[in-house]
Design goal:
This protein is mostly helical. Helices cover 46% and strands 0% of the residues. The protein has a domain at 69-201: Cytochrome Bc1 Complex, Chain D, domain 2. The protein has helices at residues 3-26, 69-73, 91-104, 106-109, 118-121, 133-136, 140-149, 163-181, 189-201. Helix 3 (91-104) crosses helix 8 and helix 7 (140-149) crosses helix 8.
Length: 209
Amino acid sequence: MSRAERAPHRHAALAAALAFAAALAGCRQDMHDQPRIDPLAENRFFADGSGARPLPAHTVARGQLRADGPLHTGQAADGSLLLELPLPVTREVLVRGRERFEVFCAPCHGRTGEGTGMVVARGYKKPSSFHVDRLRQAPVAYFFFIMTNGFGVMPSYAAQIPAEDRWAIAGYVRTLQLAQHFDAAALTAAERARLDAAPAAHGDGGAAH
C-alpha cells in the first residue's frame, strides 16, 4: 500500500485515539469521590457538623403507623383496659399464643403460669402466679399492657413480640387460668367426654383445645 493510500487510515486511527482520550478525560476520579453523607460521620455541610440528620417531626416509619389504637395500646378511647381481645379468638390464635408464651414467658412464669420457670429456679425474682384472684379478675388487656410496657423487674417485650402475638399470649394466659379454675360440672356430658378423651385422642403434647 502506498503512502498516499495509508494516509486516510492513519487519519482515522488518530481520530479514534483522540476520541478515546477525550472519553477517558471525562471519567475523572471525581465520579468515584462524589460528595456524600456517610452515616454517623462528620459533615460540614450542616451547621451542627453532623451527617446524621434528625427525623422531621411526626415522621412514622413504613408499617409503623399503628392507626388501630386499641390493638397497640390495649386501651379503649376512655383509657380503660379492654375486656376482650381486639381480634378473633380462634384455635389458631391460642395455639400461636401458647407457642410464643413458651418462648418468651415460660422461662420465668413456667408453662402453667405458676411463676416457677427455670430462670426463677436459678435465682431470678419469682413473678406472681397467674392463678391468684387479682390476676384472674384483671382485664385480659392487663397482660398485654404489661408485656408492652413492662412491670417491676419484667422489661417491655414490645420490641421482641409484635402486638398481635402479645394479644395471642394474653388470650393463652386466660386459657391457662380457665383450665385450672373452670367448674367441670358446667360441661355437658358430650363436652366432658371429649375433654376426658382428649389426651388419648391427640398426640400433640397437650396443645390448646
